[in-house]
Amino acid sequence: MDGFILRDFSRRLGSSFCGVFSLLAIAAAMQFWGLDKESFWFDEAMSWEFSDNCPGEVLEDTAKDVHPPLYYLGLYYWRKQFGDTDFALRAYSVFWSLLGLVGVFCLARDAFGRRAGLIALALGAVHPYWIYYAQETRMYAQAAALGVWGTWVLWRWMETANDEIESSHVAATDSRPCKTKIFAAGWAALYALCALSTILTHYAAVSILLAQGACALFCFRQRRQWFHVAQYMICALAVAVLFAPWLAYAASFRNSLYDGNLGWIPQPALADLFSFLGREYLWSMFECELLRWWAPCMAVSAILAILCCRSWRMGTKTRLRRDATARRGAVVFAWMLFGMPLIAFIISCIYHPVYFRPRFSLFMAPYFLALAGFAFAGFEGGKGWLAAAPLLVWFLGVSVAQQREPYKEDWRGAIHAFPEPEIKADFRISLLNDMEHQCVRRYIGEQFPKADRATISRFQGDFPHLNGKRILALWRPSTVDTLPPSIRHLGQFLFLNREAQMAPLPLGLEMRRVRIEETECRIALEGDRPASFTLRVSDAPPYWIKQLALANGWPQWQGWEAVADLNGDGLDDLIGSIGASILVSLRSGSGLAPHREWLASPAPLKEWPMNSQRIRMADLNGDGKRDLVVMADEGVFAALSTGERLSSLERWTGEFCARQGWSDERHPREMADIDGDGRDDLVGFGDRNVVAALSNGHSFLPQDVWLKNAFGYSTGSWRIGLHLRALGDVNGDGRADIVAFGASRVQVALSEGTRFSTPEIWSRFFCLAQNEEEALAHIRLLADLNGDGRADAVSFRERGLAYMLSDGKRFLEPMPGYLLPVAPR
Predict the structure, then answer these.
(1) What is the helix (H) or strand (E) element at residue 472, kind and residue range?
(2) What are the distances in angstroms from CA 585 to CA 306, 456, 527, 598, 624?
(3) Which residue of 96, 151, 262, 544 sits 20 to 30 Å from the alpha carbon of 810, by its own alpha carbon?
(4) Are residues 538 and 488 in the same domain?
């Protein structure tokens, strides 16, 4: 029996060996290209951790985790043979990815013919989404590969059963009915093996098995092949029985099958269930950066569906297989493509959310590729390849762009840049959270113990004795804020203690969280130019200012804070609200002075707004001192600075407020000198137009439209949570311009003194955000870094810090850098 099956498989694969081998070589080249370019992120570090022990410990660790053990066991034996490097561990996923592509070829070839199989394989070889998960040390490529091979085996089983029907009219002396039943039994046994391996790779693969089972039972029942229905039920029972011991073993370590750590998976929306056809399958991980484009891109899948219908109708007029076989294949693969997410949605509704589209869409990708092969194979001669060429070029282009775009934090680079060998420390500690610490362990080992209860107990109540000690800590203030109270206490002590020697990781975004004890930092450039730029905290993210306040003795829970030159000496001072009072710490050459009250009451307002979007520091009267501006519901109020105090609040305009229809959620309002008179003006981005009110030194003039149909909530779908609209003088003419960071480009509208010019594209960098959380993690700001009078762009992201200098006509190519604290004076 096994000999028949193996010979049948070899004959089918060997007939197209040269084409398959060539396309697999291309696929391997695409997947090995840049395989170890990026560091492991947390999930990959967990794969490394779980596969690092003996098989018994691998089983125990995975039983406590949210995944079954097969992938980790395979990775354990793989790393014993090929090593422990990032490249070697990710190569295991490449192996499974290539095996899955062979399965795609076999599926499409057996259902639609050799040419359809080769086209499907060619599309898979350069498919960016398939390549992305081939380069990740996770189980998704293995689960997808086992799933597609299970479908192929099931397809051969169903086709064998169909042959049995066709041979039923043959004379009883013919042995073919007997052989077909033997073949069917062999396919059934192989399917049981594939199904068991799939569910032991990923629990979410149950949707694959349920979709396969529904398809097989429907097919056999329609043909009234009760023998095969019984065979499938025996297979399903066998898979359940063989999977049960693992479930029982896992249950001995857990209170329930569902793990609370999966609570991050959202409930899938029905309207979003099939959006992978216009998102991941066309844009891969770029989908998050081109959020508004996915709906129109569904047209590509619609065109493929139309071409599939054309191939269905053409049938034997081309080199497709028999009409009936091709049509059965189209129906089966379409069910697998759309049935799996539907089943996952139902499970999510009645159990817990288990379907996370950006990852689990990989399970349906083989059937998308097979149907695409069917769509293009319906053309005669070489026209099929010609029709597929645009999609092949598109996939290849996105794959190349994906390779050039970093997606993960550079933990490896950060550790290599970490000055640990040059620092002798009395004490080492890691204040990183579990996810971050796991990544650090991958590249730095066990040199830094994780801050746990036992570690903290050594210092509880004895923190002052650490003064003067050299403490080497891996830390992030943002992480410290989320730690348990005792650990957070230590983190805050290390953070505020000037005597302790701190060494935060140079991770770009996180290096901007250096100890802010002064009102400026230095941007150190990476590359050939040994230079650095000064970055004022007044140009920087809000939590820098929070750090500055805490480091200078301000109370822990104040209202809002800001940094600005309040007395005209050219040095930035610290201002903030505590209760009803406005406090100010003036800066001198020796540092920030103790804070004192500059304004005792928010009258005529009832209280100071807590929303930082409503607070601005601006020089309204051109005296070189920054004044306080408050966007209230009743209007815009201002308190002018005398250099020693703030005057009482006065209404400068009744416009730009909630009573006039302005919303904090829809309409950003900024302050800058847009007409070059030395006084900062008020600029608002409305639903459709950009309006401005010029300052005359004691009030704002009536608002006027400065730019029509641009940068508004209803014109281009500009959103506060996603798209930054900033003001800065990017061409050095003394007038502030609009710099708008959109979804795919940075646009600039130059100020002409009385209006803004038509927006022009200045860059395609620093402009990508998936959602508000991503936008908050991608901080962009304008600052004159090199002192040429032109505002430059600075970007802070988890993957690093970068800046773009302005030449007055465009932003130059991004350059990487990192931040260094300025020594206290």
Answers:
(1) strand 471-474
(2) 68, 34, 37, 10, 18
(3) 544
(4) no
